[in-house]
Design brief:
The structure is a single chain. This protein has a single domain, classed as SH3 type barrels (Roll). A hairpin with a 4-residue loop joins strand 2 and strand 3. With 64 residues, the chain is an all-beta fold.
């Protein structure tokens, strides 16, 4: 079975979190390639958090 390739987010991109249901759209503020993490702010819940940057289907890039 072929591996599905998901696009990675860049700084300034809007993403849709598909893993946790309490977060919706977030904006990527920073990407750290050394640690494979990105800092995302979720305006709806007024919270920011570090997420894994390598996309295994846990988020969808809305725009970049």
């Amino acid at each position: 079975m072929p591996k599905v390739k998901h696009s990675k987010a860049t700084a300034g991109a809007w993403i849709k979190d598909k893993w946790r249901k309490d977060r919706s759209l977030g904006i990527v503020l920073q990407v750290d390639e050394q640690t494979n993490m990105m800092f995302v702010h979720f305006p709806k819940i007024a919270n920011s958090s570090w997420l894994v940057w390598e996309n295994s289907g846990h988020y969808k890039v809305i725009n970049s």
